[in-house]
Amino acid sequence: QVQLVESGGGTVQLGASLRLSCVDSGRISSDYGVAWFRQVARAEREFIGGITWISGATMYADSLRGRFTISRDNAKSTAYVQLDGLKPDDTGVYFCARARRGFIGAKFDAYDAWGQGTQVTVSS
């Protein structure tokens, strides 16, 4: 049963922006937050950042801080990541993951569920 669904990916040109969404239909009130990851060519799955549901506190990977912005809408159980200044190297599949316990970071096994991902392709 798929409970996290990403959307908003697509094919864009260099410098464009996209906003990806992640709807968590299995969210419960005690869930800690949502994280975003991506898998680009010739690389392992990479932590982008995350957000907590209650306070909206955000955290980002240092390498991606500044171009990507994470937000959430509690009423819709939806998290977003705004991708600005996209480059061809950003091409890949973007995933969200549910953090049920009090941790958001790059440790894959800390997450309870993952979405199927949404493809982002940036052309030059």
Please tell me about this protein's structure.
- The chain is mostly beta strands.
- The protein is built from no helices and 11 strands.
- The strands form 2 sheets. Strands 2, 4, 5, 6, 9, 10 and 11 form a 7-stranded mixed beta sheet that branches. Strands 1-3-8-7 form a 4-stranded antiparallel beta sheet, with no helix packed on it.
- The radius of gyration is 13 Å and the shape is globular.
Element order: H for helix, E for strand = EEEEEEEEEEE
Number of strands: 11
Describe the largest sheet.
7 strands, mixed
**Which class of secondary structure composition applies to the elements?**
mainly beta
SS element count, helices = 0
Rg calculated over all Cα atoms: 13 Å
Query: What value does the average pLDDT take?
Result: 95
How much beta, percentage-wise? over 45%
Query: What general outline do the C-alpha atoms trace?
Result: globular
**Poorly predicted runs of 5 or more residues:** none
Oligomer: single chain
**Helix content class:** under 10%
Distance between the termini: 37 Å
